[in-house]
UniProtKB/TrEMBL annotation:
SUPFAM superfamilies: PH domain-like, Ubiquitin-like. Gene3D superfamilies: Pleckstrin-homology domain (PH domain)/Phosphotyrosine-binding domain (PTB). InterPro entries: ARHGAP20_PH, ARHGAP20_RA, PH-like_dom_sf, RA_dom, Ubiquitin-like_domsf. One of its GO terms (biological process) is signal transduction. GO terms for molecular function: GTPase activator activity. Pfam families: RA, RHG20_PH. Residues 150-255 form the Ras-associating domain. It comes from Opisthocomus hoazin. This is Rho GTPase-activating protein 20.
Amino acid sequence: RQSVDSLCFITFISFCREGCFSPISPEACPLVQSFMCHNRTFILDGHVQLKTGLQTQERHLFLFTDLLVVAKSKSHSHFKLKCQARLCEMWTAFCTEEVCEGSTDPERSFVLGWPTTNCVANFRSAEQKETWLSFLQSRIREEKEKDYPKSIPLKIIAKDVGTCAYSKTLSVTNVNTANDVILMALQQLGINGSEKDYKLWVISGREDAPYPLIGHEYPFGIKMSHIRDAMPHGSKPCACPRQLQGSFLTEQLPQELQCLNELKCISSNKHLSLFPDLSQKSFKRKRSIINWAFWRGPGTHLDNVPLSSTSAAPGKLFGLLLTAICEDDNLPKPLL
């Protein structure tokens, strides 16, 4: 099997070098050279459009045995690094309509994601899309097999409205999706319901505000990305955190490296609200809750829009006192 795999790998590399994806040998690029090491091999590169929300970015992907590098082309041989993701922390899906606005060709597109990011990868042809999807899924699967540990504790602190707070710690594997985690949480909490009625949110010290998961993401990979980032400087991006035990697998990380999980009911006829105790940290929401998960990109231009100087007086909504429009201390339905 190893000889057959090696032959397929060499054949495909030769195919790439002939110029299918790049007019030059990608190994000659300084960016590729900077990521090469004794335990990492270059596999594939190609042009792609990455779409999030209404935004479309022209990017170049470089796939290694354990890493995906996203870059912006500056010339035919020079690229600017935009981000990199460990393959063991990545996922693919096909819910393109939930990630970007407008129509996308399903024959040439699929959802590509890693911690804090979901985007639609749009390729030049159906063949190129199938090649990338096949290689990514294969490499993600193989890297997950190397994961250590295979499962981690995922703590959910819940509050039932009007009663005291309680929490549950779930054992989550590296192949459990967000929807799987929601179902496990509902069972452990003794709540009858469907995963369609709830959203799992991530509260990351890297971000200004919580953001919801669609359902196909891997909470294991999201949390492990925070744990791996807590490793000493100089560690390889793909290094397994075997030395990270005890407090690193709980929430005793520095503030900027913490990763909590929030389970929210999205059904309007339910009154149960599950969420961690956020009294120790406040989040300033800068964007609409709608499509929040799909604005996970490098662009920050929307974050810097100044507030209107003609905002209503504090404590009022459309010129009315909050006490006049909130019945029994409940916000109006349009706000909810």
